[in-house]
Amino acid sequence: MVKSVAGLALGLAALASATFGPPAVAAPASATGAAHAPWWTHAVIYEIYPRSFQDSNGDGVGDLNGVTQRLDYLKRLGVDAIWLTPFYPSPNYDFGYDVADYTNVAPEYGTMADWDRLVAAARKRGIRVLVDFVLNHSSSEHPWFQQSRASRTNPKRDWYVWHDPVPDARGVAGPPTNWQSIFGGSAWTLDPTTGQYYYHIFLPQQPDLNWRNPGLRKAMHDVMRFWLRHGASGFRLDATPYLLEDTAWPQDPDPAGGAPVGLKPYNAGLPGNHPIMRGLRSIVDRFPGDCVLLGESNIATIADLAKVYGAHQDEINLPMDFLYSGVQKLDAVVFKARIDDAETRLNGAPPVLFFSNHDSSRQATRFGDGVHDAQIARLTAAMTLTVRGTALVYYGEELGMTDLPKAALATVPLGPTRKVADNRDPERTPMQWTGAAGAGFSTGTPWLPVNPAAAASNAAAERADPGSLYSWYHDLIALRRTNPALRNGAYVPLESGNPKVLAFARQTAKGQGVLIVLNMSDAPQHVHIAGWPGRAPVAVRTVLASPAAAAPGLTDAQLAPFAVRLTAYVTD
Ligand code: GLC
Prior knowledge:
It is built from 16 helices and 19 strands. By secondary structure, the chain is of the alpha/beta class. The protein folds into two domains: about 35-140 and about 215-475, TIM Barrel, CATH 3.20.20; about 145-200, Oligo-1,6-glucosidase, domain 2. The strands form five sheets. Strands 11-10-9-3-2-1-12 form a seven-stranded parallel beta sheet. β14 and β15 (about 510-520) form a beta hairpin. α1 (about 5-20) packs parallel to α6 (about 215-230) and α12 packs parallel to α15 (about 470-480). It starts with a helix and ends with a strand. The structure holds alpha-D-glucopyranose (GLC). Alpha-D-glucopyranose binds near residues 238 and 358. Alpha-D-glucopyranose binds near residues 94, 97, 134, 296 and 359.
């Protein structure tokens, strides 16, 4: 039976706070003197899609105990935190992003006891765990919605967004507005029981919650407290721009055109979102242990992204930069502009410049050219792990996992664990642990097919190979952790003198730095680096290069196709 959130949270509060104190993970002191920089300003956060990471009981679906089994792998890789996508009870129309109970674990993923064990085992290894909080909408099977839809006078009626039908120009009653859902079709569904429409920016099975209602707000705050008391170190906030709608309900003169469907002035980023976000932030800030909010914060411009941090950086600590992740091809000029923007127009807040997640094509597929794929994967890894701010690594990215060809997915039968085919299935295939059948993911039949590429790209083979992509990630993460410039240094914009090559540096206040040079083309390129502020630095050594670099170079250098070169320097 699905339990009521508020009651459960209150009931467990005393027990939970007695069991879970502040995380045992110490906030590391910065090597540059920024001793109080919270852990998340330079963390590597590893995103796990639990359904596909490790199946511990042979049912073909990954689970929490599976994640626990793989913590040593994550520790060795060097990650600071994991973000688990939803594992709540759910009818799975959107694989967990349709939540039927916010304070429980779906049986297919395990139990609350499994969650508690996972968090404790992660802490022992210095790894924090973030929960994916789906706050814009619940499942239509959530008891709140079941109550809300029961009658117009139900106390939960106003916890969702209801509206009477509105006559169109011909006088025929229909949806209140012509707004579209992000997943296609009208954003309104008529509920025959009460004769009103409810609003859903995603699927009809994902009715939007009404954040204007104080009771709903309190219940959602209690959900956050529940997970914090159960050891979460914060949240990835799902779909944050959509919490409020323009209740003047304007018609869209061009519903399929103009701004993208998910970025209309009436459905995204309304001013009232700010106090709501400050409310969420104050909950995590009151918890010990530097808890954090990582936001799925879709925006149109860098100025909009700056606002998501809050006027006093008192809202979402880490809004993901979708302007950067939206770049579809390697282009040094475009990436330089995006990074420079993030550095100069976010008021100094830590950027979250990432490539891959469970909603978008994997970076190895997106940027690979079929000839230099291995080298390109090294280059994108170097970007993620050398820019300032928080790094997001999507599971398997460190192995070079690619999207499953769509044709392979068409053959997978639908069933109870896969009710609908999803165009995001290709980037959600099982983690490639080994080259054996089932890829070490499951002894049963995996819910999505294993990518045939697992035969060559898998953790077992790559961990044993110092020249593998895994080893490259491992070394980069270790460097980022130990090198003061890469860990906490400022961003230094540079000119490479070549539109195919991206160059920038990271530098400490004491003048220790690392120059990063990335050839984004399939041809050899020459660079002439310029734009150093102050005195020209002196090269010390090459700290990492692929292909291997003979000598460190801070000004003129010849680079192989897609070459990556990191050179340490000092300014005196
Ligand atoms: C977010 C999630 C996505 C989900 C959607 C609706 O965009 O990342 O996977 O489908 O929200 O919850």
